[in-house]
Amino acid sequence: MRVSIKTGAPGASQKVGGGAQPASTGPVGAPVAADALSVSNGAHFISVARARLEAIPDVRQEKVEAIRARIDADAYNPDGDAVADGLVREHTPVRQEP
């Protein structure tokens, strides 16, 4: 018995990249199709945005050092009311009026 696979036939494997040998073969010696991955533009955008966000440090060290120096010099006197207002604003959900 002879098995032949014609290019373009159902179940036939297409070579991509001009490789000389298929990566693997099936049980009868026929080439096995390689896995493929397709990423949408939205997924690519999210991936790039996530990578850029990870590059930003969580702590702005220059600001920490400046405040630390003011605390050490006893020159840091934040307005308690402004700090409290900022905390409340930061942790209160925004209501949208209809």
UniProtKB/TrEMBL annotation:
Which terms does the UniProt entry file under GO BP?
Answer: bacterial-type flagellum organization; negative regulation of DNA-templated transcription
Which intervals of the chain are annotated as region Disordered?
1-28
Which SUPFAM superfamilies does the record cross-reference, listed alphabetically? Anti-sigma factor FlgM
Q: Which InterPro entries match?
A: Anti-sigma-28_factor_FlgM_sf, FlgM, FlgM_C
User: What keywords are annotated for this sequence in UniProt?
Assistant: Bacterial flagellum biogenesis, Cell projection, Cilium, Flagellum, Repressor, Transcription, Transcription regulation
Keyword NADP among record annotations: no
Query: What role does this protein play?
Result: Responsible for the coupling of flagellin expression to flagellar assembly by preventing expression of the flagellin genes when a component of the middle class of proteins is defective. It negatively regulates flagellar genes by inhibiting the activity of FliA by directly binding to FliA.
Family of the protein in this entry: Belongs to the FlgM family.
Q: What is this protein called?
A: Negative regulator of flagellin synthesis
What species is given as this protein's source? Mesoterricola silvestris
